[in-house]
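Quick check before the chapter quiz. The format below is the same one you will see on the exam, so make sure you can read both the input and the output lines.
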Amino acid sequence: MGIVLGIDVGGSTTKIVGFSGGELLGTLQVRAADQITSLFGAIGNFLRERGAALGGVERIVLTGVGASYIDEPIYGIETRKVDEFLAIGHGALYLTGLREALVLSLGTGTAVVRAGAEGITHIGGSGVGGGTILGLASRMLNKSDIDAVIDLAESGRLENVDLSVSDILGGNIPSLPPDLTAANFGKIKSAASEADLALGILNMVLQTAGTLAVFAARNDTIRDIVMIGMLSIFPQAHKMQETFRSLYGLNFIIPPHSVFATAIGAGHFSFEEEK
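Here is the expected output.
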């Protein structure tokens, strides 16, 4: 049985995964100046790292915004496309083993998808996401590398940037954590460092995304929210996960391989199509 490649051709990175007999072989992420270059680079690098030949690839399954640039078989191999929201939902359920979930996809922007027995539906989303972090960091910090922003934020202090609940009310409220953000960037101090600003940017984007998921859950019976995408592995995402779980009573889950969930969903869904 040949290898099935699932590839998520995103706006800034390409994620590729491989399956053999329905079992996940591995994952790889590639960044490049353009989506076509990253797509073909991802295929070559993935196969080389695993000592596999191009002739051993049974099919290629594409998803993501960059999939629209491909209109013919890649290297003469059967090439399929899967709707991105379908791949997001299917990948999240595959990685968690859940039967239904709300999926918070944290990429260049943010999408919320409902996945379950009734099907997979795109509920909505926001333009606030990883692209927002890079844009603001470039302007405010003169940094264009996301890893540099994350490292910088590790030593940041939100109290130098964000207005908290306790700042407004002058004390504690039993139902709300005193350090809960009341206004992002609502209290920037003149002494705020670049680390403080970096943390403020990350906090604003992740809290906005998490709030979208909370609003979606308010209109649903599902309590499990699966976080996937590049931002899901940030240390700050884990803090948001715990804060929102405690505050709203929802089960925020970051599964293994969360960065590759959409590529995994595309590749594995093709096995479902074969049944």
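If your answer matched, good. The first helix runs from residue 35 to 49.
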